[in-house]
Design goal:
The protein is of the alpha/beta class. It has helices at residues 5-15, 20-51, 59-104, 116-158, 160-177, 181-207, 209-214, 218-271, 276-317, 376-383, 423-428, 436-445, 471-483, 501-515, 528-531, and strands at 336-343, 353-360, 365-369, 391-396, 399-400, 409-412, 421-422, 461-462, 489-493, 520-524, 536-539.
Length: 540
Amino acid sequence: MERSFRSCASALWRMSAPVRWRMSVSILVGTLRIAVSLSFVWASKHLVDIATGVEDASLRSGIALFALILAIQLCVVVFANWWDAYSEVKSRNRLRMDTFEKVMRSRWDGRERFLSGDTVNRLEEDVRVVGDLMIARIPGAVITVLQLIAASAYLMALAPNLLWVLLILMFSAVFGSKMFFRQIRSLMSRIRARESELQQHMQESLQHRILVLTLTNLDRVLEKFGWLQADIESNTRKRLNYNAVARGLMFLGFQAGHAAAFIWGVVGILHGTVTYGMMTAFLQLVGQVQRPIAEFGRQVPAFIQAIASVERIMDLEELEQEPSSESIFLAGAPSIEVSGVSYSYPGSSAKVLDNFSASFPGGSFTVVAGPTGAGKSTLIRLILGLLAPSEGSITVGGEPSGAPLRGNFMYIPQGNSLLSGTIRSNLQLASPLATEDEMRSVLETAMAGFVFDLPQGLDTPCGEVGSGLSEGQCQRIAIARSLLRPGGILILDESTSALDAATEESLIQNLYSQYHQHKTIIFISHRKAAMRFADAVIEF
């Protein structure tokens, strides 16, 4: 959905709040550049007039002044370039952090609104574009206006009629190119969307490369990759065509202005109304009057691209956020009560749970079993407060379930949940200050003592989703990671599915002997190993 320019401008103003002082400094430095630049024009005219005898002054002092202004101009330009580059990095990092935090803190309703590749593309490319807009484009536009006003005032003092000729020529060129702005914005939105789709396709294909190869489906993956690239190229070509016509009109106006100034000066010299120094000033001022107008024409596509990126960041900012409240930590092994709970995923009328009730006494070991799709994992997500029941209630230690209680859970999700890094960094995700002895203890409890037999031990690298380790090894490390947390409720969601029967039984025996009656344990499993230790079995 294309948003109004006003809503995009309002969002941009809000995003710029942390860096407005940097934008102000950029404008201040740019204003200094304008003053020095016009001083250089005056110094050039002054030096030429001295050389031609129009002004009676020391040539040596004129050269010294000219050199001083040139040195100041160099210093200002170098500082301005450094400041803009550094400020852009700071601005981009701040905006990316704020947006990433909103994505991570957004309410989860069972499905993500945006695919991960699309979200990453927005956090990378769109944040880069908007950061450039805030630090470079907007201050640049203000500086351009100031330069136009200052240069026009100077030229007005020298040759007012020439100024009007230049302004008419350049503004005609700008308005001539304006007819293409809407088409360029539409194309930029399409290009951004396709680039996100391409990134998602690459990300998923690389992540599941073995699956693609074993399904002998590589040609289909490459075919889609090529189609997405071709569509991006096609829309980019159309955008470049519009840009070329718009810039051609701008160049025509620019060249016509230069020609007008040159002829004006030549005729003035012929009639004795223009000195050689004035001619020098004319040719420099023409650039300083026309360059801002031409810059507006060149920047229009960049502004349009940036507006498309602002819209895409707004989509992430508008994700519904989880309510922020102070965390609640419960003592001991809290009980869990599920009373008359019903739940349907958004967009579906089918109830995953319908008037479901269950009790998990404090310190108990409960196995939840049932066929795939019966709602076992949904029940866990409701208990964790990731989802909210449409009917009924869930209490944990007498408190309503929700984000404030999440620190009480030691949770191991289905599948391989290791992150790229090392085994140590994965364990520290649960407890950043955990000692090596504490890590060794939980690894042994989780039947993951094999880690210390690896050549690099705890510093063994893990690839994406634990590549380099077997599925069973990854599951045991994930269980150990969860055991480092201080919560009083341990939830395992099919967390031993990749283990052989003997290892699974030994692991469950360890959990039972160490945590039974000390923690409330909920074990989702189809297998009988866990049921032999259970105080209760809930069948779906």
